[in-house]
Task: structure prediction
Amino acid sequence: MILVTGGAGFIGSNFVLDWLAASDEPVLNLDKLTYAGNPDNLSSLAGDARHVFVRGDICDRALLNQLLAQYQPRAMVHFAAESHVDRSIHGPGDFIRTNVDGTFSLLEATRAYLAGLSDAQKNNFRFLHVSTDEVFGSLGANDAAFSETTAYAPNSPYSASKAASDHLVRAWHHTYGLPVVTGNCSNNYGPLQFPEKLIPLIIANALAGKPLPVYGDGQQVRDWLYVGDHCSALRRVLEAGRLGETYNIGGWNEKANLDVVHTLCDLLNELAPERAPAQGAYRELITFVTDRPGHDRRYAIDARKIERELGWKPAETFETGMRKTVQWFLDHQDWVQKIQSGDYLTWIDRNYAQRSESHPSGSAA
Ligand code: NAD
Ligand code: TYD
Result:
């Protein structure tokens, strides 16, 4: 079997569902169920003996030792993390604990576990570390996209904690020979994404007739990848990635945030016209608000290495992926409503109440 950490979160649960749809190899899913972990994401696996869920913390070495000894996985796919940049600005402590200490703890537990395996088992084992393009920092408008050799320059507490985890993974390979491979992926979107991130937040707010908050001038650029494509890339890296290597994973979809919000509004006009604001169009809800401190201006991924070496390319375009995503959220309003209570409301108040409305020059919604 494989051990997945963070498999109740957005990408992790998509990965687990896709994995079990394509293979009968069981998954041991270790997740702490923080605010971002949602057992409902995995409800279709209820009663499926191929999925073993354990609620626990990746920082808990005793638990890790016990699980590794008991289940003897052949691979670990490490998603568990604190993942939201805005939350890292308000409270970086959890990011250091889970992303840095937690990864350290997994590496050490894996090292001890491998010491007890035969050479053949050791050679077959893989530690797949799931990371982000944000470790490379911010690009200027005309800079070349991030490649695997771009120097690390993280700017937020989130990206700094992920960069630290990448460095630990690299060092455990070079020093102890741990069989690691790392994926650095761009912004994901798709079903099951927690509605604190840009795309699901905009869809949820639009359907509720609430303002659509765009930070600063909305001209920050991200590369967007449909989550199912990230999952297929990770399966490919797990299968054939070279040990100790890193692979940049991206969708070749650079978009300014305001353009992403416009696309969402236009899809909603088409797919949910009955819930559009009284005046007619969802775009009217767009509201420019105070920018994020230290906001990275542009990310772009050069994904040629994974295509050249592993033959992976995204299957979805931005248009097909966004349409699927909006339709999924329209079909799963109950999933969204269940999340939008308690801690979620506290967060929304904390992140948006202090952001005053702003009017960047030249910005037309
Ligand atoms: P998420 O926040 O939706 O899910 C994180 C999951 O980890 C949750 O289920 C949470 O309960 C669990 N978790 C948190 N702390 C834990 C701990 N101490 N022990 C065990 N479980 C814990 O995150 P996501 O968007 O699914 O991202 C998954 C991974 O992919 C992260 O490592 C993130 O850095 C990386 N990544 C995300 C994106 C993106 O666009 N979302 C892009 C590139 C890379
Ligand atoms: P986000 O989904 O938080 O991902 P990340 O910060 O990891 O890239 O944000 C994507 C972009 O959208 C980022 O440039 C910040 C911006 N953004 C807004 O403009 N408004 C919002 O309410 C949010 C959550 C993000």
